[in-house]
Each structure stands twice: as C-alpha cells, then as structure tokens.
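User: I'm putting together notes for a lab meeting next week and I want to include a structural view of one of the chains we've been expressing. I don't have a solved structure, so I'd like a prediction I can at least talk through. The sequence is below, exactly as it appears in our construct file.
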Amino acid sequence: MLELLRGIRVIDLTTIVSGPYATQILGDLGADVIKVESPAGDLFRAVRPGRSAHMGAGYLNCNRNKRSIVIDLKDPRGQPLLRRLLQRADVLVHNMRAQAAAELGLAYRQLHHDFPRLVYCHAPGFGHAGRYDAAPAYDDIIQALCGLAHLNRNEEQPRFLRTIVCDKVAGLHLAIAVLGALVRRLRSDSGCEIEVPMFESMVSFLMLEQLAGQSFQPPLGPIGYDRLLSPHRNPYRSRDGFVSILPYNTTHWVAFLTFIGRTDLAAADWVCDPTRRSQSIDALYQLIASVAPARSTQEWLSALSGLDIPCAPVKRLDELFEDPHLRDVGLFESVAHPSEGALRSVRTPFVMPDNPSQPDRSAPALGAQSREILAEAGIEAEHVEELLAAGVVRMPAGT
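Assistant: Thanks for the context. Below is the predicted structure for the 399-residue chain, given as structure tokens.
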C-alpha cells in the first residue's frame, strides 16, 4: 500500500468486480476504503474456489486494503448510519442503477445539500441519458453489446474474451474519475458528481484505434484497425511451440527480412515506407507464419533479441509464477490472511522507488470492522450493540 491518498476516506457501496476493482486501486494508493455491505454481503464473495463461504478467490483478489461494515440500508435505521459515515468521508462510490440508489436515499441530489464537498462517483451499466439506462449490465452483456465479442470472432462465431475485461476497464475508468474529482475539489473546495457508465467506457476504449477510417467525415475507409484485424496476426507456430514475433518499425522489418534471407523484400520500397507497409501488413505477417516453423521458440528468441526485434514466448497463466522478471520485481506475494490462511497475492503494480510501501490490509471478512467504523463515526458503544442485536449492523460470528 502506498500513501499517495493517505487521509482520503472512501465509502464504497460497490459490488461484484468493476466497482471493487476501482476502490481496491484507491486503497492500494493509500485511501481508507470502507466497504459497506448488505447483510448478504457482496455477491462476489460466493464465487469459488474458496475455503469459507464468504471469502472466495474472486473477492479476495479485488478487495484488499479495505475495511468492511455491514449495514442493512433497507432498514429505516440503516440509512442514518450511512449518513454518519458520510460526514467524515471524501468520496462515495457505487455501481447501482439510478432508481435503486434513489430508493436508498443515495442519489446525488439527495446528498449534495448535506455533503457539498463529497466526491460522488457512480458506475451504472449505461448512461442516464440513454434508453438503456435502466437495463442490467454484466460483463458478457457489455462484451456483446459494445462490439468486442464480434471483434474477437472466430470466423463467424462471436467469442467472449476469457477475462472480465469490461468490468475491469470500467473499474479503471471509475478510479481515474475519482482521482480527477479529488483534484478538482482541491482547487474548488466543492464536490461533484461523475457518472462512469460501463457501456460507454468500453465503446470509448475500443474505438481509440478501431474508429480508424470512420474518424473522418466523409470517411477515409471502413471501421477497424487493419493491423489488428489481419488474419495472420497471431502467435506463430515454431518448431516446438508458439512464439510472438513483432517487427514493428522499418528498422525491425529490414533486420528481420535480412535475417530470414529475404533481402529482396528488405530493400523493397513498399516495405521501407511505413505508410505503404501498413497497407500490406497481412502479407508480411503471412510471411512470418510461413518461416516460423523452421526454428524452435528459443532459437527465434535468441536470434531476434540479438537484432532488437520485439519477440516473446507464449506463456500459460500458470507459467507466470516462474517468470524471471515477475520474480525479480516480486509481483506475486505469499500472504497470511487472518481467516483464510496462506494465500498467493498479486501486489499492486504501482511502485514508488523512493517511498517504501506499507503492508497491505487483507480483504476483510463480512462486517469485520463494523464496530470500529461506527465508533469512528461517533456512535456510542451502547447504541452500536443495540444495532447489532437488531440485525441492522452485523459482524462475523464470535466477534
């Protein structure tokens, strides 16, 4: 955990992945993230595998550096408790649909008067001004709708990416929005509302390069980035496996073509001219595919690295544990969780070389810090015990 956001308190009402990923980033940067959960807990707690009912791997991996409090916001006694937490908070983040937030008294218009300095960021599936605004949104739905599943098609079969990419891209956008709003508040001393819809975030993300010829009016060509759409842009089969080979600039291509004995192409005008080369890139990728089986993966890596041509082996996920670079930087860590025992964790990728990080806080058990959070809000211990007895607030059994 870094200390860039030390002193910033975030009330986190998000669930599943996009919101929790965003608030974990804020926690990694040093914010005090208070995860407010319903009595049933974040649904992602149940995703397996896991050693206990409420601490699945998915939850553990996107909820570190947070504290958990359980408040039943559907109970009339619960909403005033949340408002007490907001009195000392800088940020409120949620990923509810607008109607659900309003029913809990959590719409921006319901809070702004009492909390004018509050940074209010929410991540619905769809922007409020569009006709999809009330529709449910999950990663598969957004992958289908934003064009990603079609872009990733195999011949005519659309395919989902085997990662929850829309959730995570939306989470990154949400974290950036919070940070931008906090900077604004430093200058203006006032809060604001920012909406970060998943659908719009993904379309913006994809169109960065895919808008292509449609960027111009009238269009200069179709939609789609030619290099990425090349049917021969793949890891190439070597003699004993697969390898990624990517000559990118003119120097790379001349060196590669010379190495494989195609000096005729290395001197060709259409290869040496970046604009003309980009228009025929698939032919060059097809050439790589045709020569790649002649050498082993290691032979390609040794030769091309010596020529400063980008290349890499194709690794399985489980091979990353032994990747020498990742071992050098210590990306994977062994941690002892207070309830789940020994775990493997992926630390934040952020590094401040001159500012040593602080130990991370393990992902919290459901409601583990309910008492301490309410005490910090100034609620008397006797009243806290009454709320616990009534089930408005909850803690793990035996605590």
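A couple of points you could mention at the meeting. The chain has two domains: 9-139+168-198+329-394, 236-313. The chain has a mean pLDDT of 96.

User: Perfect, that's what I needed.
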